[in-house]
Design a protein that fits this description.
The complex is a heterodimer of chains A (265) and B (183). Chain A has seven helices and twelve strands. Chain A has 265 residues and is α/β, with parallel strands linked by helices. With 183 residues, chain B is of the alpha+beta class. Chain B has an eight-stranded antiparallel beta barrel with strand order 1-2-3-4-5-6-7-8. Chains A and B meet through helix 1, strand 1, helix 3 and helix 4 of A and strand 4, strand 5, strand 6, strand 7 and helix 3 of B.
């Protein structure tokens, strides 16, 4: 007969406890994550939803969720509750603090609860450490992209110039995309287009000219954590505000008429 | 102060301590995972029955990631229970460790053109962990250990979002082998 002594039992339970929780993680700075390219996939599913909406629909905009997962989940609950009238969700960047794999995993696990397709613009914090590589696997290779939904042109750009290499923002790309259609155009970026800490006066003026020339109705950004309404050229400039502030920016579109409100959740 | 210079000084100091204090055991360790590399090599010194200090150098090879990751870590182990049974010495311990990931890209203040101190230090992480080790004692003493823990980011995010973060999904495991060095 095998005698199990208290010591053996205790040691066995401790080893079992330690081994049973967790997984072998080599480094939180790794950049291998599911290659899902959510932006591309979700743009397809946004187009599939086009027939569900008449010419009256809404877009939910959230931003700067960082590590405010509780607040992000509250926003997601609100969006899911109103999924019949929300065509899609836009996250205007900063899903992480340091662009670390574990932060992206936490964010991804929470946004998987969304019942409405989401597209995301990259934020300055998302570009830190190996964040760019993780974003490209999770959301897609292209940091500038656009699509047309119900005749409205939605353009998404990376304008995190301090954290990117090359010409950022890509003015030629913005110009080409905004010229594509004469209908409603909404431009999404992470950093405010009028941020004079990051951009020179002449850069701001160049972007402003583009906005005026192409008759852009709305420019929407994140980065600043308090929501705000201002103007940029002829466009209305909206700052989404961070998740922790407890608001969702709703854009209501009815044919050529666009309205917005910040909803307290 | 230059971080590289500071780390070199710490490592040198620790080696001097290892060399001069010979009354207690020192071990060579090989560890797999535990957030400090796919494999890492280290030295451990028991200062007394409660406290031991370990220094590790770990690597995640480039073929496992998009680029190699090199980590230097300092682990502080605190024994909670020690049992001896026949020729084995068994310990259950907790620990706190700090590690630094080498490379410019892991420090946001040098990898971006943002103004100085715009971002907080990104290359240094802390860990809290629980471990269990079993050593065969005798002329050649060697053994195995398991560790499980979380890093500072997981812990802070968990505390701030108790209902939304399942901590077990982000808990790391480590397994290692150690043998006695007669320094």
């Amino acid at each position: 007969m095998i005698k199990i002594r208290l010591f053996d039992y205790f040691l066995f339970l401790t080893i079992l406890f330690i081994v049973s929780c967790g997984r072998f993680i080599y480094s939180p700075y790794m950049s291998n994550i599911k290659d899902v390219k959510l932006n591309g996939l979700n743009i397809l599913s946004i187009h599939e939803r086009e027939s569900k909406f008449n010419n009256n629909y809404s877009i939910a905009v959230i931003s700067d969720s960082h590590n405010y997962y509780r607040d992000l989940e509250l926003q997601i609950k609100y969006i899911n509750k109103n999924k019949e009238k929300i065509a899609f969700v836009v996250h205007t960047g900063d899903a992480t603090d340091l662009g670390l794999l574990v932060e992206w995993e936490m964010f991804y696990n929470i946004i998987q609860k969304l019942e409405v397709p989401i597209v995301m613009v990259i934020g300055n914090h998302d570009l830190l450490t190996n964040g760019l590589e993780i974003y490209q696997q999770l959301f897609g290779y292209h940091l500038d992209f656009s699509f047309v939904f119900k005749g409205s042109n939605f353009v998404f750009i990376n304008n995190n110039n301090w954290e990117s290499t090359g010409d950022v923002p890509d003015i030629d790309y913005i110009n080409d995309e905004l010229r594509k259609t004469k209908a409603n155009s909404i431009l999404f970026s992470h950093v405010s287009l009028s941020d004079l800490d990051r951009f020179t006066k002449s850069e701001v003026e160049t972007t402003k000219k583009l906005i005026i020339q192409n008759n852009v109705g709305y420019v929407i950004n994140g980065h600043d954590h308090n929501h705000n309404t201002a103007s940029f050229g002829n466009a209305i400039q909206l700052t989404t505000g961070a998740s922790v502030k407890g608001y969702i920016l709703m854009i209501h579109i009815e044919r050529n008429n666009i309205e917005h409100d910040f909803i307290r959740i | 102060m230059n971080l590289k210079f500071f780390l070199k000084k710490i490592i040198l100091l620790c080696f001097m301590i290892f060399k001069n204090i010979t009354y207690s055991a020192s071990y060579f360790k090989i560890q797999h995972a535990g957030e400090i590399g796919y494999y890492s090599l280290g030295l451990s010194h028991n200062f007394n029955y409660v406290y031991s200090l370990e220094i590790f150098h770990g690597i995640v090879p480039a073929y496992m990631n998009q680029r190699a990751i090199e980590t230097v870590s300092i682990k502080n182990n605190f024994n909670m229970f020690i049992f001896t049974k026949e020729r084995t010495l068994n310990k259950i311990y907790s620990g706190i460790s700090f590690y630094h990931v080498k490379g410019k890209r892991y420090d946001p203040n040098t990898s971006t053109t943002a103004p100085n101190n715009y971002y907080r230090k990104g290359s240094i992480r802390a860990q809290l962990y629980l471990g269990v080790s079993t050593m065969i004692t005798g002329r050649s003493s060697h053994g195995l250990y398991f560790e499980s823990g979380v890093n500072d980011i997981v812990l802070i995010n968990y505390v701030n979002n108790l209902q939304n973060i399942e901590i077990q999904k982000y808990t790391f495991l480590a397994v290692g082998y150690c043998f006695y060095l007669n320094l």
